[in-house]
């Protein structure tokens, strides 16, 4: 599927247009179209096959962009992109992607200092040459140096949710190849790490040479680095690395165990095997020349005297000890989630109507959905102003009447927390909402003490239920807030309020490690997707993956409860 390829071309066009000083509306049109394509789960080819109208029905795709998509699908190139690329020096796009470098700055850096690569940017920042440029002070220099380091790690590791579609589409192609008996994506992907360095495909086959020859020719693979007898390394459009590894079917389970890792987990398992006079490798569990296990993964763990350990736990963070003691957690599962507790509709910056959201949630089998549009002062996200609050509540009630409350839309809001911890709606408005989330979208750089006070004050407000995306980090863009998390977790527990695990792919917030700490302290969690369009509802999988990495059980998750229990809890918190 060509979604990622076209998304990347549009994104590059937006960046080049911005660099050339073009009309911001044109730039935005390409950015939004890129977003639409990147978020789309259906192959764009399938939509294009239904005709021009189907393409134009996609958010942010008009006649012009629809024609460009058709052009690319037909010819494999995009003329408008090539033309722009002739006007913009190569390497400038990388510079532009450093957070804090806007088009104007990039242009200035290029014209005055010849900056056309990240290396040159690093050099002129380090040598302080930039200080002579208009608008460049020491503070900005420092900030860009920090951001440059962040951007570099971001190009190496990608958010899991950003590669999910591309990875699964490739998996389908791999499984369809003749000679492939089984295939699975292992590594950090299977462990639901928030970012992945590359994708590791395990393939069971009796004919590895032929299968690998065919796999490296699959469409979507743009570069082949190495092909060996039982492994190959390739690169996908956009630069993502994929490792293919083959094993015979008798070693499928041990191959899964090996390639899923983590390395630290596997090393500890091998030591455990040695202590029992056994040997563990990717081909099985062995006593001398005899293979005791290898065909299935549970059998490998069983041969070592252990229950099967779910991949998200495999980080050598105590899971092997817990398994030995028979004390593995009973991890929460995606099917146990009965509703999404943060989604945005057209009443703020979401793309879908309340009714569309309700219908999509019904398809997912949800019993409820908290619609949590932004509050008034978040202007960039079209926060709902006070004079629209009542009209919105009326529409929520109307949709519930129409659907018979299946799923039940909970009237909620994601309310801004000001720098001093005060909230963005007056108390009578908050009282009318059934569920109130509070969240930080500004003043990220307060001191640790101020930030802690701010979050505590927000959490303590009598109308508040859930602290949403608590650290406010954005993967590859912004580190989380500095705060005394232990203190905040303790207060949340004492107040009986919930912390969110926001599964939107560039947030993933709370992060797994903090969530595990909070879970260990008995804090309750709300899982959400922070969806801004229907397609985002699928990110619940990532919220659940993070919850699993945090060792969380269903009873620790608010939205595994049935609707009546949830409503009871929402009222109880306010008593
Ligand atoms: P990533 O790609 O950085 O997000 O993280 P992983 O965990 O996917 O790591 P990767 O791709 O380098 O290797 C995939 C798996 O292969 C890893 O999880 C465990 C296994 N593996 C790699 N190197 C070693 C090693 O030296 N010893 C053992 N036992 N396993 C290894
Ligand atoms: Ca990997
Ligand atoms: Ca790898
Ligand atoms: Zn938010």
TrEMBL record:
SMART domains: HhH1 (SM00278), POLIIIAc (SM00481), POLXc (SM00483). The keyword 4Fe-4S does not apply. It comes from Meiothermus ruber. Its cofactor is Mg(2+). GO terms for biological process: DNA repair. Keywords: DNA damage, DNA repair, DNA replication, DNA synthesis, DNA-directed DNA polymerase, Exonuclease, Hydrolase, Methylation, Nuclease, Nucleotidyltransferase, Sodium, Transferase, Ubl conjugation. Its EC number is 2.7.7.7, 4.2.99.18. Residues 339-419 form the Polymerase/histidinol phosphatase N-terminal domain. Residues 1-315 form the DNA-directed DNA polymerase X domain. Pfam families: DNA_pol_B_thumb, HHH_5, HHH_8, PHP. Repair polymerase that plays a key role in base-excision repair. During this process, the damaged base is excised by specific DNA glycosylases, the DNA backbone is nicked at the abasic site by an apurinic/apyrimidic (AP) endonuclease, and POLB removes 5'-deoxyribose-phosphate from the preincised AP site acting as a 5'-deoxyribose-phosphate lyase (5'-dRP lyase); through its DNA polymerase activity, it adds one nucleotide to the 3' end of the arising single-nucleotide gap. It catalyses: a 5'-end 2'-deoxyribose-2'-deoxyribonucleotide-DNA = (2E,4S)-4-hydroxypenten-2-al-5-phosphate + a 5'-end 5'-phospho-2'-deoxyribonucleoside-DNA + H(+); 2'-deoxyribonucleotide-(2'-deoxyribose 5'-phosphate)-2'-deoxyribonucleotide-DNA = a 3'-end 2'-deoxyribonucleotide-(2,3-dehydro-2,3-deoxyribose 5'-phosphate)-DNA + a 5'-end 5'-phospho-2'-deoxyribonucleoside-DNA + H(+); DNA(n) + a 2'-deoxyribonucleoside 5'-triphosphate = DNA(n+1) + diphosphate. One of its GO terms (molecular function) is zinc ion binding. It is found in: Cytoplasm. This is DNA polymerase beta. Its main location: cytoplasm. Residues 53-72, 93-112, 128-147 form the Helix-hairpin-helix DNA-binding motif class domain. GO terms for cellular component: cytosol.
């Amino acid at each position: 599927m060509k979604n990622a390829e076209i998304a990347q071309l549009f994104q590059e066009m937006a960046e080049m247009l911005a660099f050339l000083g073009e009309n911001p509306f044109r730039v935005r049109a390409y950015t939004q179209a890129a977003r639409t394509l990147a978020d789309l789960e259906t192959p764009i080819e399938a939509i294009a096959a239904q005709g021009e109208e189907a393409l134009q029905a996609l958010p942010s795709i008009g006649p012009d962009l629809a024609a460009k998509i058709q052009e690319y699908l037909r010819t494999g190139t995009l003329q408008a992109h090539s033309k722009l690329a002739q006007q913009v020096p190569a390497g400038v796009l990388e510079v532009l992607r450093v957070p804090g470098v806007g088009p104007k700055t990039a242009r200035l850096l290029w014209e005055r200092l010849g900056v056309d690569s990240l290396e040159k940017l690093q050099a002129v920042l380090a040598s302080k040459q930039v200080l002579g440029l208009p608008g460049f002070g020491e503070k900005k220099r420092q900030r860009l140096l920090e951001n440059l380091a962040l951007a570099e790690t971001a190009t190496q590791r990608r958010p899991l949710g950003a590669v999910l579609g591309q990875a699964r589409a490739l998996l389908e192609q791999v499984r369809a190849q003749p000679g492939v008996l089984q295939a699975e994506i292992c590594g950090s992907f299977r462990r639901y790490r928030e970012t992945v360095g590359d994708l590791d495909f395990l393939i069971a086959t009796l004919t590895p040479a032929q299968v690998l020859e065919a796999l490296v020719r699959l469409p979507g693979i743009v570069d082949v680095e190495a092909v060996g007898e039982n492994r190959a390394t390739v690169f996908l459009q956009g630069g993502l690395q994929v490792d293919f590894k083959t094993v015979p079917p008798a070693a499928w389970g041990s191959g899964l165990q090996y390639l899923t890792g983590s390395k630290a987990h596997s090393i500890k398992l091998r030591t455990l095997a040695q202590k029992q006079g056994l040997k563990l490798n990717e081909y099985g569990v062995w006593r001398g020349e005899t293979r005791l296990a290898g065909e299935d993964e549970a059998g490998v763990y069983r041969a070592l005297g252990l229950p099967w350990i779910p991949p998200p736990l495999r980080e050598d963070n105590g899971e092997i000890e817990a398994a030995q003691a028979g004390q593995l957690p009973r991890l929460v599962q995606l099917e146990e989630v009965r509703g999404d507790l943060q989604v945005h509709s057209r009443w703020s910056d979401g793309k879908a109507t309340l009714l569309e959201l309700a219908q999509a949630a019904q398809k997912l089998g949800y019993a409820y959905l908290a619609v949590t549009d932004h509050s008034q002062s978040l202007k960039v996200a079209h926060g709902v102003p006070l004079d629209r609050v009542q009209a919105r509540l009326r529409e929520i009630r109307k949709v519930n009447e129409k659907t018979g409350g299946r799923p039940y839309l909970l009237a909620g809001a994601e309310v801004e927390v000001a720098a001093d911890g005060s909230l963005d709606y007056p108390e009578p408005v908050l009282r009318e909402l059934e569920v109130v989330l509070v969240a930080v979208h500004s003043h990220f750089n307060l001191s640790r003490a101020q930030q802690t006070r701010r979050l505590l004050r927000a959490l303590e407000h009598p109308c508040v239920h859930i602290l949403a995306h608590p650290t406010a980090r954005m993967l590859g863009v912004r580190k989380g807030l500095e705060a005394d998390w232990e203190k905040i977790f303790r207060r949340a527990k004492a107040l009986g309020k919930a912390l969110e695990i926001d599964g939107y792919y560039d947030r993933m917030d709370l992060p797994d490690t903090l969530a595990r700490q909070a879970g260990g302290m008995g804090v309750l969690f709300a899982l959400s997707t922070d969806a801004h369009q229907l397609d985002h509802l699928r990110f619940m999988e990532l919220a659940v993956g993070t919850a699993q990495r945090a060792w969380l059980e269903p009873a620790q998750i608010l939205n595994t409860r049935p609707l009546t229990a949830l409503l009871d809890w929402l009222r109880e918190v306010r008593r």
